[in-house]
Design brief:
Radius of gyration: 42 Å
Strand content: under 5%
Distance between the termini: 145 Å
Number of helices: 5
Order of helices and strands: HHHHH
Oligomer: single chain
């Protein structure tokens, strides 16, 4: 046994060199790909829709209704938001119904007052 221990003593100890104890360099994470800047699409019915809302607000229901229909169709063709067109159509129809109701009310009063002598 003494020979075996002598053999192990004769062997030089394994030296740890610095390269084997250091961790390998970590790869850098991939950089995010830059996205191209998107240009917002223009809604062709937006201007017509705004003019229609102003017309409806000023009491021009028929004009607002017509501009609402035009705005809706232009926006739909472009694939853009049709909200302004829908608002104008609804507002125009409601205002036209109110105007027709008021005219009908006065017409009815005129007919009833003329026949009740």
């Amino acid at each position: 046994m003494s020979q075996e221990t002598d053999k192990t003593k004769d062997k030089p100890e394994a030296k740890h060199d610095k390269a084997s104890t250091q961790t390998p360099p970590q790869p850098t994470p991939p950089q995010p790909v830059a996205q191209p800047a998107t240009v917002p699409t223009q809604n062709p019915g937006e201007t017509t829709g705004i003019i229609g809302i102003v017309s409806n607000f000023l009491g021009l229901g028929l004009v607002g209704l017509i501009l609402g229909i035009v705005s809706f169709n232009q926006s739909k063709k472009a694939g853009a938001s049709t909200v302004l067109g829908i608002i104008n159509i609804v507002w125009g129809v409601v205002s036209m119904l109110i105007v027709i109701s008021i005219i009908g009310f006065f017409f009815l009063i005129a007919i009833l007052s003329a026949t009740s002598y």
